[in-house]
Amino acid sequence: MTLSLFWVQLAIGQSKEGVQSYQRSKEDLAEISIYPNPVNDVFSVAITLDIGEVRVYNILGREVSVYKTQDNKSFDAAHLKRGIYIVRIFDKQEQLIKALRMSKT
To answer: How much is the pTM?
Structure first.
């Protein structure tokens, strides 16, 4: 029997190219949330910062959805299977703002 463990490493300030050195205020980061959670067909991101992209990963760390934003903060989740997902929110410079857990029912 083989047991495989998967780790998802999330770092604030990480861009697609690597870790960047910048900071956001704790207040801005604390106020970011996904609703409703658990999600049925559509989820929204409550955030005061500008979003460039939202990426959704399954629990194994595989990317399952990418949403390019145009001031839109609501996203279709109807195609996602029931389960737990990691939602990574990026700014317009492709730097990670925050990663959140989302449940799909």
So the answer is: 0.73
